[in-house]
Specification:
By secondary structure, the protein is of the alpha/beta class. It has one domain: Rossmann fold. Helices cover 39% and strands 22% of the residues. The chain has six helices and seven strands; from the N terminus they run βαβαβαβαβαββα. α1 crosses α6 and α5 crosses α6. The radius of gyration is 16 Å and the shape is globular.
Length: 197
């Protein structure tokens, strides 16, 4: 079976990265992790990736004079590893149109809300302030607009009485860990089908 070379981009501890790496140990999974890349050299997820046996690199955005020059350095690392698909997993940088175009149709992201509701930050607080009865997470294709790409999959969780942004976030994160591997597999199968046609 064809498996795509996967890069996971992180900025922190990489809990979604961990769920993706565990999923890829299944022989039938349509992606194999080749690289974990972070914009922060001290991201705990880098050590977690290395412990999993995956190459982990830091490309610090602070060492570049512009967003695009940072992204060109990232792009070179991705190309050197023959990456086919990128999963953003807590990568806390807004990507430029230059990078998004280079990876169009091959880059996905997970967002902690039921898009199109609450793009951007502070999603759980915003859902609670609005009095929503449910929250959740969305995996989507990355487009030039922040959190505006086509939706691949969503998972819903109830909002409970007495929820705080932290308690809601913890429940949504569990849903993210279930959803992201499934949605990445769906995305990979679509990419493979496109390549074959």
């Amino acid at each position: 079976m064809s498996r795509l070379n996967l890069a996971i981009l992180i900025s922190g501890r990489g809990s979604n990265m961990d769920s993706l790496l565990r999923a890829t140990t299944e022989d039938a999974y349509p992606a194999k992790p080749v690289l974990v890349l972070s914009n922060k050299a001290d991201a705990p997820g880098l050590d977690a990736a290395r412990a999993f046996g995956i190459e982990a690199l830091a490309v610090s955005h602070k060492q570049y004079e512009s967003r695009e020059s940072f992204e060109r350095a990232m792009h070179e690392a991705l190309e050197a590893h023959k990456i086919d698909v990128i999963a953003l997993a807590g990568f806390m940088r807004v990507l430029t149109p230059w990078f998004v175009k280079r990876w169009s149709g091959r880059m996905i992201n997970i967002h902690p809300s039921l898009l199109p509701a609450y793009p951007g930050l502070n999603t759980h607080a915003r859902a609670l302030e609005a009095g929503d009865s449910e929250a959740g997470c969305t995996v989507h294709w990355v487009s030039e607009g922040v959190d505006e790409g086509d939706i691949i999959g969503q998972a819903r969780v109830p909002v409970k009485a007495g929820d705080t942004p932290d308690t809601l976030a913890a429940r949504v994160l569990k849903a993210e860990h279930r959803l992201y591997p499934e949605a990445l597999a769906d995305a990979c199968r679509l990419i493979i089908a496109r390549q074959a046609s």
